[in-house]
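Let's practice the habit of predicting before peeking. Look at the sequence and jot down your guess about where helices and strands might fall. Then scroll down.
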Amino acid sequence: MSTIDNAVDVLLTTVADLVVSVTEEGEPMFTHGRHGLAPLNPGRFQPLVYARERLFRFNGAVLGVWTEVLLTGSLFGESVASIEMSPEDSEQIKGREDWAALLTRLGAAGG
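Done guessing? Here is the structure:
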């Protein structure tokens, strides 16, 4: 099943207003706390990964939303579902440098 098919399936089979593609963030992340930065996922400093501490980053590949939600003036609606993608499948091109780097990698890989 393709990533797009998977996203449509998730949107159709859940009560979500929006489906986004994400990759797991494996590095520790921080937010401003009362005494400076505070870890969002302190378990990252331990050998075990805690399921509730898993953080995800929007990777820019898929954003599917119902028209009815958009007509309310909101992109996110009330509920957001996700499809997880590997970092290798989550190449995001934000500028010419990213495009050139991707072409170089593909050329080196014989693709």
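How did you do? The longest strand covers residues 55-65.
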